Amino acid sequence: MSPQPPLFISRLDPHIPPRVQRLRQLDVPHFTAADKREATAVLAEALHGILDTVFTQLLLDIEDSYGEPGPHTRALKSAHDSIRDVKYRIDHYLGWVIKFLSNKRLVPGIAHYDSMVHELPDAGLAYAGFPVPRELGERARTELAEMENGTRTDVSEGVELLIEFLDVSADPIIREPIELMRFNKVVTKTLYGVLHFAQGLVRKELRKLPPVMPPDLLPLLARHMETFLVFEESELQEKLERAPAPGSVAARQGRA
Question: From edge to edge, which strands make up the β-sheet containing 7-12?
């Protein structure tokens, strides 16, 4: 069953849902080392995609709006480097945690991620999606409209709104599965430490953007956020169809 708006969405490669469903259907005693590697690989791919949806795409759009190097170049390069660092840490620690993934831990973890993976089979689309707090969704809808029509002109307010959505997304994507899988204290503390580091780094880089983003780029920020926020169920397919294809943002970053 698909979640109800307001939603955060990130388009996925259509091959991800069947891979997650295959893992979900395995019996507990039958998880192999290869299955555990597959589970962490699917999660890493989805997490990379979410980072690109929320962060990398925005940086690339800001670069395109300028068209040539300038005072903004250093801040944007630092932000790109930070996202690469976060992706590296995701891959490293998912590889590290495999040895602690007992079969019984995998079952609730896979079930949790399966609940966030959805398909529109008639359209050939797949996405990760989860509800956001209604108050935040309603406030964002109003603020994004004001950013687009020019009645809101403070770039820092738009960036702080984006940070709120990043913080909210950490619960279903990271915190809830960590709690469900009941790791020991050392593993749990390590994973939360990585999360804290990644959140702090992304916040820091986002807060460097207002000085290099004049108010006339606020509509760009609003349009960017609207690509991954669904306020009405009728918007879902259209927004997924307009979203960059999985992998295309990372490829675009590689050419930047």
Answer: 117-120, 125-131, 7-12, 229-230
